[in-house]
Amino acid sequence: MEQEPGVYVVPEPGTRVLRVIRNPVPYGSVSELVRVLDEIDHQLASVDRSSHALLLDMRNVQGRSEPEFEAAFRHWRLRLIRGFARVAVLLRTEVGAAQAQRYIQQDQLPTRVFLDEADALSWLETRGPDE
User: Fold this and answer.
1) Domains of the chain by residue range
2) pTM for this one?
3) Among the four residues 15, 66, 79, 99, which has the most C-beta atoms within 10 Å?
């Protein structure tokens, strides 16, 4: 098992969807969160965001609601998702989905929350105006 938090970018075969997978190791500090988020930003630096969709697969992550974590995550989240054609957040629970929905309302970016992977991928692969 992995000993420290990590994030990985994996292209979905045959699509223009990039899957971001977060391992289940919890962040020990805000600086550790920032280090991991900077790593993913680096992995996505060369991507033409306007022609790709992003699937944030957070099913293995335990949410953190401390104000300092939320502030750091919001800054990174906006930097990460801005410019992608569509963004889906894939979560395991209704509680996690409610928290993510709160973030999305703050961000006002083309993002949706899903509990079903097939539904998320189908929405991400849809071309045309956002509903």
Assistant:
1) 7-125
2) 0.87
3) 99
